[in-house]
Amino acid sequence: MTLSVVDINALLPRIHTTPDLLSRSSGRVSAHFDTPMAAVNALLQMLQPLPTPLLQHWLREAGGHIIINSRQHVYTDGSLPWHGQSLQQVAQINLAFSISDPVHYLTPIGHLICEHLAWNRAQSCLKAPDTFARTVRRCFDAGYGLRPAARQDATAYLATGIAAYLVDRRQFNIHDPALEKLLHATVFSRRGYRTAPRNT
Fold it and tell me: What is the DSSP letter of 193?
């Protein structure tokens, strides 16, 4: 897929909702979102800071789906059955967390983004993957992880950091300034990728 500019709405075909999304959600959640599409639009707004090169890479890959639901909250790297098809690399996000804990809500998507970045592998789409990986590990070793899981595993640390950046970059900078600065210059920058589309 070759696009000079990728609007966040291009992710719409990758975002799914379960049929019982609102009927199985709490009254607080269903009062906040009157339709499943309202939940999708709210998520797209949260993902707005993702830069064109990352979106472009995401859309070129077969995998990379998001399922908004009322029960599961996990990232699955392999395949997941979905209405007669098999989805690859799926972030299942529980809509209730969008209200109670937005960082936790976006963390499975952070894991999905980590997979697309291939952040600790030679085939990473980032421009300077070795430097990026070393810096992430140095930040991780300093113990700044926002959640217990993020203090146990470097990928979980990065995924949570990406989620926190999306939710409130300034607040994240207060907690973990080194990782915030790194993400701003790489993952969330058009200049942070090996090949940047024209006119971006």
Answer: B
Strands 74-82 and 85-94: antiparallel
Which among 168, 47, 184 has a CA at the least distance from the CA of 112? 47
Element spanning 89, H or E: strand 85-94
Query: Using one digit for the tens of pLDDT, what is the confidence trace for 158-187?
Result: 999 999 999 999 999 999 999 999 999 999
Q: 157 CB contacts (<8 Å, ≥6 apart)?
A: 136, 139, 140, 144, 145, 150, 151, 179
Report DSSP letters for 124-150, one per residue.
-SBSSHHHHHHHHHHHHHTT--SSTGG
Tell me the per-residue pLDDT of 20-78, one tens digit each, with 9 for 90 and over.
999 988 888 989 999 999 999 999 999 999 999 999 999 999 899 999 999 999 999 98
Alpha-carbon gap, residue 192 to 175, rounded angstroms = 23
How far apart are the C-alpha atoms of 110 and 162, rounded to whole Å? 6
Residue 127 near residue 194, CB atoms below 8 Å = yes
DSSP-derived 3-state class of residue 84: coil
67 burial via Cβ count (<10 Å: 0-12, 13-18, 19+): buried
Q: What is the pTM of this model?
A: 0.93
- The SS3 assignment for 194 reads coil
First to last CA, the chain: 16
